[in-house]
Amino acid sequence: MNLSLILALIWMLAANVRAMFPSKDNLWRFAYGLIAIGVPILIYVWWQNGIWIALVFLVAAMWIMRWPVIYTWRWIKERLVRS
Question: Which residues of 22-54 are buried (b: 16+ CB within 10 A; e: fewer)?
Answer without folding.
Answer: eeeeebeebbeebeeebeebbebbbeebeeeeb
